[in-house]
Amino acid sequence: MIPKLHYISQGNSLKEHHDNIQKACATGIELVLLDVHNYSDKKLLKLATQVRETTAHYQTRLIIANNYKIAKDVKADGVHFNALGDCPSQVRKELHPWQIIGATAHNLDTCESYIAKEVDYIYLSPFEVTNSEGSTAKALGINGFTAIVEALNTKTPILGHGGINTEAVKDILETGVSGMAVSDEISADFNSIKIYNQLLNASSTVEQRYTFK
Fold first, then answer.
1. Of 86, 88, 110, 85, which is closest to residue 100 (Cα–Cα)?
2. Are strands 5-8 and 31-34 parallel, antiparallel or unpaired?
3. How many Å apart are CA 67 and CA 65, to the nearest integer?
4. 52-94, pLDDT tens digit by residue?
5. How far apart are CA 98 and CA 92, in angstroms?
6. Mean pLDDT of the chain
7. What is the percentage of the chain residues whose pLDDT exceeds 70?
8. Looking at per-residue confidence, does 47 or 129 come out higher?
């Protein structure tokens, strides 16, 4: 099952990323994406090892952004690619058989490309553009989400991402997405996880195409 709510880690330091992940786990998040940039592989491996211990304690699933070698080394639940680069089909051969692959897409063509390469889920992004997202992609909004999800007509879970808040959950779900990946609002208030879980009914996640072990 792919949980309906994902927390994408944020922080001004590696320690803050870890602290925020611990808070998210303690508040009931089911899946965390460790999303750290501009650090050496050595520092990222150390952080990922520590975070894996934390998520394991809370029985929270852990995905590592972009670095599939570290995801494999720390036995994370999978890897997530924020941009086109490594081919998911090739990366899968390098991972443990039970690990999954996710990716972020900004348009229909990229979604179709990832689905053809058999990713396990997709972040469709951005719903809205925020200063913290660091992306030049245009906001898709309700209309964009609806059009892409309808055109894909896929069993692969599609999760909304980018500028999402609890007030928009109901409308976003009506576009047909499977769930949401959130960073800003959760980092600002970890109690919002409980609100998202209620809105998404994430405590009893709907069975999706792929299953974690």
1. 88
2. parallel
3. 6
4. 999 999 999 999 999 999 999 999 999 999 987 789 999 999 9
5. 10
6. 92
7. 92
8. 47
CATH class held by domain 5-204: alpha beta
Contacts of 206 (CB under 8 A, 6+ apart): 1, 4, 178
Q: Rounded to the nearest 5°, which phi and psi values hold at 69?
A: -65, -40
CA distance linking residue 76 with residue 99, whole number of Å = 7
Distance of CA 118 to the CA centre of its chain: 16
Cβ-proximal residues to 190 (8 Å cutoff; 6+ apart), any chain: 20, 23, 24, 26, 27
pLDDT for position 60: 98
For residue 211, pLDDT over 60 is answered with no
172-207 burial: b if 16+ Cβ within 10 Å, else e: bbebebbbbbbbbbbbeebebbebbbebbebeebee
Note the pTM of the prediction, 2 decimals.
Answer: 0.92
**Which pLDDT does position 131 carry in this prediction?**
65
Q: Cα(153)–Cα(98) distance, rounded to whole angstroms?
A: 25
For the chain, the domains span 5-204
Per DSSP, the three-state class of 13 is coil
Tokens in use for 84?
Answer: 């086109």
